[in-house]
Write a structure and sequence with these properties.
It is a single chain. The protein has one domain (about 45-190). About 40% of the residues lie in helices and about 20% in strands. The protein is built from 5 helices and 7 strands. The strands form 2 sheets. The protein has a 5-stranded antiparallel sheet, with helices on both faces. The chain is elongated and about 80 Å long. The chain starts with a helix and ends with a helix.
């Protein structure tokens, strides 16, 4: 009986030391990890909105009240895309539900309502299928679309300006990204009134 208690106390001591060490390492690395994540997100925003030099987050109260229903779950942030203090447009981060989880997508839209591009920054989609949504050639379909369009996903080559061709074998991912971009457009239209 005494051996069990001694072994239990030793294990408790080891677990306590290990927990304290992990907490210490987490405290040290938290700041640098957050900084690297910000740099990566800013680069993703620049890819979605080339020409912008800085991104200023809009106050949540300025756009959150404009959201309805599912949009509250999908829209994550809205930033003003700027150059020399002048607002060029907006980058809107959305995270619609894909096949494997949320597909975090940054959408760039100029003040006059033209999509400058999209950038998928995080996803858990199937490699070789849904993960192909990160292909710049597929994402390029969104560039140049306008905020007065209602995007439509098709399984054949597009025949009209508002159509987006789905990825073969990844309809759920294609639908998620297209719906996310459409949500960003809808939010832009309400902000830009």
């Amino acid at each position: 009986m005494r051996d069990i208690i001694v072994t239990g106390l030793i294990l408790l001591l080891i677990a306590g030391v290990a927990g304290a060490a992990l907490g210490f390492v987490n405290a040290i690395t938290k700041g640098p990890i957050a900084e690297q994540n910000k740099i990566a997100e800013d680069q993703a925003k620049m890819t979605a909105f080339p020409g912008a030099k800085e991104f200023t987050p809009m106050d949540t109260s300025e756009w959150e009240s404009l959201l309805s229903g599912d949009e509250k779950e999908i829209v994550k942030s809205v930033d003003m895309a700027k150059d020399s203090g002048n607002v060029l447009g907006y980058v809107i981060k959305v995270a619609p539900q894909g096949y494997g989880g949320p597909v975090e997508t940054i959408v760039g839209i100029t003040k006059d309502g033209k999509l400058t591009g999209i950038n998928i920054v995080n996803h858990s989609e199937t490699p070789g299928l849904g993960a192909k949504a990160q292909d710049p050639k597929w994402q390029a379909q969104f560039k140049g679309k306008t905020a007065d369009m209602q995007l439509k996903l098709v399984k054949v080559p597009p025949s009209s300006a508002n159509e987006i061709e789905a990825l073969t074998g990844a309809t759920i991912t294609s639908t998620a990204v297209t719906n996310g971009v459409q949500t960003a457009i809808d939010v832009f239209n309400r902000i830009n009134k």
